[in-house]
Amino acid sequence: MDTTRFLPALRRLLLGLHTGAAAAAQAAGAADADPPGRVGRLAVLDGPVSLFDGQQRDWRAADPDADRNRPLTEGDRLATGPRGRAEARIGSTVLRLGERSEVELQRLDDERLVLRVHRGSLALRVATAEVAEELELVTGELRAAPARAGLYRVDRRLDGERDRTLVQTWRGLLRVDGGPAVAAGERLVLWREGARLRQEAASTEPDEFADWVAREDRRDTRLDEAWAQAGEPRVPREMTGAEELARHGRWDRHPEHGWVWLPTDVAPGWAPYREGRWVWLRPWG
């Protein structure tokens, strides 16, 4: 395949991933303030997964084909059913949901990322200390924040009498507001008695969700290492979708256009934007 004729289009594709949100909002002229540059995407759907659109205020079943790579923004929710699981990515941050789980993007903008776990299991991979400073985890029982890059797990269990939250640090350090810091290898169960936050140590229980998270974390680690070895960054690490480009193509420097991305496996006659669909998404357009 002669890739030369695709270079300008590929450059527009790459730039569009990074700046399309701002350009769309500018064209629409509908927002009083600049929309956030940070956005999430739905990366993996396996089994029954539902989406709550924060703008439409309605739940619907997610389509594995149509909704993969769907943008996620403030107010959106993800929920999984029995044997279901899902993965969302926000820049370098990875959210993985186990079965019968629900998480809400309570705040998602350039300054803060607040995740509310309504029920079930959430694993959170935080790649940098800078992102950790902007991130917060919320349940009905507590507020917590990673103190550094790492891998964390939050389980919220609803039993009708004493709802409780279990927090676990696989790697890093998690600080609980009004409670302890949870170091690597530790797991705590926390609950409320009136206004008081109670806690006790909990044993680590291996399960299918933890096994899945561990496998995917190893894959992400290999991508991080390849990214670090590449030297000069091709795109910002916090650009949502950057790891997908790295997984399915290669970077090359063009004398006129600078860094461009080239797909490694495409059908004859492939061109950007021919597959997929356009959606209207507030606040970007």
Q: Can you walk through the features of this model?
A:
The protein has 285 residues and is an alpha+beta fold. The chain is 20% helix and 39% strand. The protein has helices spanning 7-28, 129-133, 208-229, 242-248; strands at residues 40-46, 49-53, 58-61, 71-72, 77-80, 85-90, 93-97, 102-108, 113-126, 135-138, 143-146, 150-157, 164-171, 173-176, 181-183, 187-193, 196-201, 249-254, 258-263. Strand 12 (150-157) and strand 13 (164-171) form a beta hairpin. The longest helix is centred in the N-terminal third of the chain and has 22 residues, at 7-28. The radius of gyration is 20 Å and the shape is globular.
Secondary-structure blueprint:
Layout: H1 7-28, E1 40-46, E2 49-53, E3 58-61, E4 71-72, E5 77-80, E6 85-90, E7 93-97, E8 102-108, E9 113-126, H2 129-133, E10 135-138, E11 143-146, E12 150-157, E13 164-171, E14 173-176, E15 181-183, E16 187-193, E17 196-201, H3 208-229, H4 242-248, E18 249-254, E19 258-263
Parallel strand pairs: 9-10
Antiparallel strand pairs: 1-4, 1-6, 2-3, 2-5, 5-8, 6-7, 7-9, 8-9, 9-12, 10-11, 11-14, 12-13, 13-16, 14-15, 16-17, 18-19
Q: Tell me the fraction of residues in β-strands, as a range.
A: 35-45%
* Global morphology: globular
What is the arithmetic mean of pLDDT?
85
Helix content: 10-25%
Question: Which runs of at least 5 residues are low in confidence (pLDDT < 50)?
Answer: 1-31
Q: In whole angstroms, how far apart are the ends? A: 34 Å
Notable features of this structure?
285 residues, alpha+beta, 17-stranded mixed beta sheet, two-stranded antiparallel ribbon, 4 helices, 39% strand, globular, disordered N terminus
